[in-house]
Write a structure and sequence with these properties.
The structure is a homodimer of 341-residue chains. Chain A is mainly alpha-helical. Helices cover 70% and strands 1% of the residues of chain A. The first copy, chain A, has a single domain, classed as Farnesyl Diphosphate Synthase (Orthogonal Bundle), CATH 1.10.600. A two-stranded antiparallel ribbon of chain A has the order 1-2. The longest helix of chain A is centred in the middle third of the chain and has 28 residues. The interface between A and B is large, with 41 and 41 residues.
């Protein structure tokens, strides 16, 4: 830890990036070092996706949680470097899921760059995903830490199950808010929760602190996904590398649409069902849905829900004394529901 | 273990199926019990592929190796039932790879039944593969056995790397026999080797016996794949649920083709290159390639290589005294290169 971290002032996310830049640089180095397959294709494809501009939120959270949960002056990572190595492995797992998600979603672009499937074919994307995932598991079991093993394998199972739940609810407008939130918790909350918990594990924190950081991570993960689902309707057209209205076109029923369906008129609900059936939808249909959402407050409702999860997440930090690391985690939590996440 | 196993006479594979039918039935039960996702789609798809007529060779090998490596009268599985549970989990991992392989190969049928991708779409096939794999890892780490963790995660990494090696050598006739055998060892030998080793682990056998059974499994795995690759050219048209000439059509250079390229004339090699380029190939081209292979002894050479690996595998059993389990493993080894595997 560079000596200046403790004296950092954290007002916003940009201070977090700046303050922990050395730790994040170490994670980048580790991500590169892990690769080294003898198969050139693996390294090329993995490097493409690993360097595609991800924010490394999960590695950052692991490192912050380790510092927060660590025992002050006697702060020690066990074994030394475990935080950086595990942070890089969680990014591998996250990257593996992105590779498979892009194949599942027939995505051509991610963050403005062509996807691995688009460049090398879906075969390569599927298999490099499998490789990154199994490579990560190999490293992880090398730690011989049961909490780490269980926490990460559980997260992987939940991510796959969450994606499958989403798939089985496709085009099904009868999904409840509870079911929607379960999907979000599984597919997005689980790995972020695992990253936070593992930070506490490598800092040798006690069970109560591990659980608190797991809950914190799960809540900000849900907040992130709910905000992301809302931005799919409300983001300005020119922002991000993403297109808007993706969920509507794919038949994924997310929180703003759930809210709208519940509050609109019978006639509007019937027309909505028609729009959902006829996909991919054009801009006209999207604009109509968005205008309805604005009228009924669906976007405000969904963003308020996301912010509610951020507030709930912060409560789990009450167990910890004030510190620069705690302020950094609070800033990350806020960032999860900001427009530029 | 049913009391009659020790008094079985093993002359061929059908005796093995008969003699160990109770153990295999227990594995089937376990495979069904493991499922139980709350997502109906997961259970439906997983049941479809898990019940698609696989021979359960890997579970059988685990169980046989546990009995062979176990300490005679004091034979004990630790923890009780670990052999059956781990056998079922290895079948899960194998099934996950089949799901992804079928997507990668654009396969419509497997063993005469439609593939999961064909029935439910590639999205479902990819995600159920991910689910089965991560579900297996969750159960596996629950054993808290480092040898089991390392052995299986290593096998998974090698399988993915082997598939990617094969992909990067596609259409590349310059691949060497050594490189071909490395691919085969990784993509097929590694999980079979892991199944055999884990049998020894749950029987609490010492390291030398674990290693011997790992080597045995790896060699019969390679034998199996080399024989399978050869049958792709030499099997009678009406046999199996598979079509012939798949590898030629997909640009996979396997042992018979390698041998042929090395021994045919310059002109034949040039024509071969043309045939390989122009895929998918028709029956006329396949018949021409097969007739060349017969003339140059390429099919005999490849089958002899497969049988050589069976012989090498059996040598690793020399460490063990004669027993019904040893005879059963020898029968399985022979079966790996038989036409109806």
């Amino acid at each position: 830890m560079p000596p200046n971290v403790e004296s950092c002032t954290i007002a916003s996310m940009s201070d977090v990036w700046e303050c922990y830049r050395l730790e994040l640089a170490a994670v980048e180095d580790q991500i590169r070092q892990n690769l080294g397959s003898k198969v050139a294709l693996v390294n090329t494809v993995a490097a493409h996706i690993l360097n595609s501009g991800g924010k490394r939120i999960r590695p950052l959270l692991l490192i912050l949680c380790a510092r927060l949960a660590g025992k002050g002056d006697r702060f020690e990572i066990c074994p030394p470097g475990a935080d950086v190595l595990l942070a890089s492995l969680i990014e591998y797992i996250h990257t593996a899921t992105l590779l498979h998600d892009d194949v599942v979603d027939h995505a051509e672009f991610r963050r403005g760059r062509r996807t691995a499937g688009g460049l090398w074919g879906n075969q390569v994307a599927i298999l490099v995903g499998d490789y990154l995932y199994s490579k990560a598991i190999c490293h992880i079991v090398g730690f011989r830490n049961q909490d780490v093993n269980e926490c990460l394998s559980e997260a992987c199972r939940k991510m796959a199950e969450g994606e499958l739940m989403q798939l089985s609810y496709k085009d099904d407008a009868s999904i409840s808010e509870r079911e929607y939130l379960k999907i979000v918790e599984y597919k997005t909350g689980s790995l972020i929760a695992a990253a936070c918990r593992i930070g506490a594990v490598v800092a040798d924190a006690d069970l109560a602190l591990r659980d608190a950081l797991f809950q914190f991570g799960q809540a900000i993960g849900v907040a992130f996904q709910v905000a992301d689902d809302t931005l799919d309707y409300s983001a300005p057209l020119e922002s991000l590398g993403k297109s808007r209205g993706k969920d509507l076109g794919e038949g994924n029923v997310t929180l703003p649409l759930l809210h709208l369906r519940k509050h609109c008129t019978e006639a509007e609900r019937a027309r909505l069902a028609e729009v959902m059936e006829k996909k991919p939808n054009g801009n006209g249909e999207l604009a109509w849905v968005v205008s309805l959402m604005e009228r009924y407050g669906s976007i405000d409702y969904a963003m308020a829900t996301a912010r509610g999860f951020v507030q709930a997440a912060k409560v789990h930090l009450d167990l910890f004394e004030e510190s620069v690391h705690k302020r950094a985690l609070q800033a990350v939590a806020e960032y999860m529901v900001s427009r530029d996440h």
